[in-house]
Protein: DLH domain-containing protein
Organism: Macrostomum lignano
Amino acid sequence: MATEVCCSSGSPSNNSNSGSGSIVTDSGVRNYITGSGKGRGLVLIHDIFGLDIGQTRQFADDLAAKAEATVVMPDLFHGGEAWSLARFPPPDKTEFGNWLSTTANADKAMPIALLPASDDPDMQKLLEELRDQPFYSRCVHRRYDGVSHGFCAARGDRNDAKQMEKILDARDTLAKFFIDNA
């Protein structure tokens, strides 16, 4: 289910930047692929608005460059419609988040990076639940005050210097996290 903050953080937008990567279809799945094609590979999960949002693609491009990696962002909607910007916020918040429950079921234990915005719930409790895990020391938690939920994707304003500073810091934090955990 979507969190209240996701629905109340303001309207998302889609800038006209299509990114420097390309769309490649493999085994029937569309993927946005960007980066050098050398070294490590990262899988980046887009937000509910899908992989065709300009800001989301730009973040993938930035992360690929900073981490010296190839970033693959698969279409989690498998060719179906992403959550429409025109239908946001949704009247039924239960319907809104159901797609994630069938797509993001991981059965692997690994470190996580938590990068909440100022209006996101406190994630310290979630991190504390991982304290006994062997990977706990490699987890990252960094709160971004002064920006709203979705600041690296559809809600990000790359023309606002303060937001861009947070976007680049989040990119740098994730790049280091991926490099350290490769």
